[in-house]
Write a structure and sequence with these properties.
- This protein is α/β, with parallel strands linked by helices and about 425 residues long.
- It has one domain: TIM Barrel.
- Helices cover about 40% and strands about 20% of the residues.
- It has an 8-stranded parallel beta barrel with strand order 1-2-3-4-5-8-10-11, surrounded by 6 helices.
- Helix 8 packs antiparallel against helix 9 and helix 12 packs parallel to helix 13.
- The longest helix is centred in the middle third of the chain and has 25 residues.
Length: about 425
């Protein structure tokens, strides 16, 4: 028996760069320069999952599996390959894609920024500089001009803090800068850009709901009896999980991790958010280290024996409820905008799905304002820093056989468990 609300959105999620093909952006430039080589890995994009050519049949599979929503992104580099030069052919295809989803009665949730940028962006207007805001808004305005009346669910930014940490903290994403002050300036400008994009969306569609997708991690002390483990867990949790939530409620971006980050600046967001998207995957343990440059380390351990993903992430379903409860404190609707596992063993994915869908039931019974769940991801795809070995998809992509699709048992389980609600 299906005990979920009839208007609940059941979907799958993707990002343009990870599944499309024929893209030239900041990531493909980095790949050619060998800058993604890490711990012996050398991810190769190689046309993603060929979705730009196979989108129609991919959407037919969403319908066949009775999901009623789909979260996807538009590729900035495809739409604006040169500053101020827009590709009409590209936006026309995104328009066709949106129309087809609507024809199938599949509600689109559109992400405007999902990590990748045009090749020129970091040189012309990097996120740590204020002119990045207008640059992003120019792109958003063009997209809304063509899609704004068709879509009423928007994610302006996918995981802005994750991207900033990778690009300016660790320096493993373009532009590859290691500077925590620039990192915080980038987050600040991205949130300011969100506010302006929010206003633009409302101008095109007053009924549209707009939010951001925020990765949230369940942090715990490595040793709950070690004071420094406990203290650094608190600092990291506030910085990573709470900082952006607080920015919306306090009109201020504030961060403090001893020896690493100290930032405190007014930011007039003025309640410019309709929902908060939670991307949740795992739990991490925080272990203090006596070193000023890196005073802690983050570890995965299979302490509850729920299992570990193919890329080492601990499965911890209860963390999803904890993070949804945290996010609901903002007083807005919430969505699970991503939740999934890298697993070649599809039985493990089914167990993962089952346990996390139980958390969705619990969250609804507890009265959390949860409006939808999007599994990551629709298709096997290119995973950041991992390449194509990390299999997140509900639909298998055979990269050796012309990107042939096949529905996994986990997708069938997902469809059956939710009854599609379409």
């Amino acid at each position: 028996m299906n005990d979920f609300p009839k208007d609940f959105l059941w979907g799958a999620a993707s990002s343009s760069f990870q599944i499309e093909d024929g893209i030239e952006n900041d990531f493909t430039v980095w790949e050619r320069q060998g800058l993604f080589k890490n711990n012996g890995k050398d991810p190769v994009y190689s046309n993603g999952s060929n979705h730009w050519k196979q989108w129609k049949s991919d959407f037919d599979l969403i319908k066949e599996m009775r999901l009623n929503s789909y979260r996807f992104s538009v590729e900035w580099s495809r739409i604006e390959p040169q500053p101020g030069v827009f590709n009409q052919k590209a936006i026309d295809q995104y328009k066709q894609m949106t129309d087809y989803l609507l024809d199938l009665n599949i509600k689109p949730m559109l992400t405007l920024f999902h990590f990748s940028h045009p090749v020129w962006f970091h040189e012309k207007s990097p996120w740590h500089k204020a002119d990045s805001i207008d640059r992003f808004l120019s792109f958003v305005s063009y997209v809304l001009k063509h899609l704004g009346s068709k879509i009423d669910l928007y994610v302006t930014l996918n995981e802005p803090l994750v991207w900033a940490l990778a690009a300016y903290g660790e320096g493993v994403f373009p532009p590859g800068i290691k500077d925590f002050n620039k990192m915080m300036n980038a987050v600040y400008n991205m949130l300011a850009a969100h506010k302006e994009a929010y206003k633009l969306i409302k101008q095109h569609n007053k009924e549209a709901k707009t939010g951001i997708a925020k990765n949230m991690i369940c942090f715990q002390p490595y040793d709950s009896f070690t004071l420094m483990d406990v203290l650094f867990t608190k600092f990291i949790d506030i910085f990573y999980n709470q900082m952006i939530l607080n920015a919306f409620s306090q009109n201020r971006l504030k961060a403090n991790i001893p020896f690493l980050v100290n930032f405190n600046k007014p930011l007039k967001l003025d309640d410019s958010i309709d929902f908060f998207g939670v991307n949740y995957y795992y739990r991490m343990y925080v272990k203090w280290k006596p070193a000023l440059a890196a005073p802690f380390e983050l570890l995965f351990e299979n302490r509850d024996r729920n299992g570990i993903s193919d890329i080492g992430w601990e499965i911890y379903p209860n963390g999803l409820y904890k993070m949804l409860k945290r996010a609901s404190a903002l007083g807005k609707d919430i969505f699970v905008t991503e939740n999934g596992i890298a697993a070649r063993d599809d039985k493990l994915r089914i167990r993962y799905l089952d346990r996390h869908l139980q958390i969705i039931r619990k969250s609804l019974k507890k009265g959390l304002p949860l409006k939808g769940y999007y599994h990551w991801s629709l298709l096997d795809n290119y995973e950041w820093l991992e390449g194509k070995d990390a299999r997140f998809g509900l639909i298998k992509v055979d990269y050796e056989d012309n990107f042939k699709r096949s529905i996994k048992d986990s997708m069938k389980f997902y469809s059956k468990s939710t009854n599609g609600n379409s």
